[in-house]
Design goal:
Blueprint (H helix, E strand, L loop, with lengths): L2 H4 L14 H9 L8 E4 L4 E7 L4 E7 L14 E9 L3 H7 L12 H8 L4 E3 L4 E6 L2 E8 L4 E9 L2 H15 L40 H17 L1 H12 L1
Antiparallel strand pairs: 1-2, 2-3, 3-4, 4-8, 5-6, 6-7, 7-8
Length: about 240
């Protein structure tokens, strides 16, 4: 395998559509295809990833904001959001080839500064150096024990990717459920019943209490009427004899 074949301009695929010629050449170079990419649900959007050589190369994709992307799961729906290269061994370093120009994962951090320039930002907490090249953010990690490169991460900072990340952040910070953004017509949640006292507004009205015996008198009167109807003949005969 020639050195020219191993050489790869990884910066050329960052921020590109997964069906672009640059990404397709990347797939062919490492004997991969879109069928090897795994899609999964992220925070509000669909993401995907491709791992090569036991995660030594990891290519991350993010779904475009387009009407068809909510229906299909094809390469033209996704953008390459970032690429990570991790230095595990010399053997793997031979497989991935040059990162940029003559820079390799087996080089020291000083070689990275020579290749990317001295206009960098040093992140002391992470122990890494950062550069910006067009719409790509480059982070190179340093192995503090040997000054060798530990990893290289290339992240897209294009308008497309940034807009998708803004939507993702807004969805993840909202009160909607995880997938509510795709199903805004869902039925209302079943809220627990809470029994609260109700004021009817009769505080100023005069309350008239009914006499305790009034109901009993009504019952006696009704009983007397019923008895009179049942024993009408006997009662009439009794009163006739009484007045004779």
């Amino acid at each position: 395998m020639s050195q020219d074949y191993l050489s790869q301009d990884y910066l050329s695929i960052i921020g590109r559509s997964a069906d672009s010629s640059e990404v397709q050449r990347f797939f062919q170079r490492f004997n991969a295809s879109w069928n090897d990419v795994i899609s999964y649900e992220g925070q509000g959007v669909t993401e995907a990833s491709l791992e090569l050589f036991d995660s030594v190369i990891e290519l991350e994709f993010i779904k475009k904001l387009s009407p068809k992307s909510s229906v299909t799961n094809q390469a033209d729906d996704f953008i390459v959001s970032n690429l990570s290269l991790v230095n595990h061994s010399t053997e793997v370093n031979e497989k991935i080839g040059n990162v940029e120009g003559t820079l390799r994962l087996s080089d020291t951090i000083y070689k990275a500064i020579e290749v990317f320039g001295k206009d960098y930002q040093y992140l002391k907490q992470k122990g890494s150096y950062c550069w910006r090249k067009d719409d790509v953010l480059i982070e190179v990690g340093q192995d503090r024990a040997s000054d060798k490169i530990s990893h290289i991460t290339l992240t897209a900072d294009s308008l497309d990717v940034r807009s998708i990340k803004e939507v993702t952040e807004s969805l993840s910070s909202s009160a909607l459920p995880k997938r509510e953004d795709e199903n805004l017509g869902a039925e209302l949640p079943d809220l627990p019943y809470v029994d609260e006292p109700v004021t009817l507004g009769y505080e100023n009205d005069v309350v008239v209490e009914r006499a305790s015996g009034s109901r009993f008198g009504v019952v006696v009167l009704i009983a007397a009427v019923i008895a009179a109807l049942l024993f009408y003949d006997e009662i009439a005969q009794f009163f006739m004899q009484l007045f004779k």
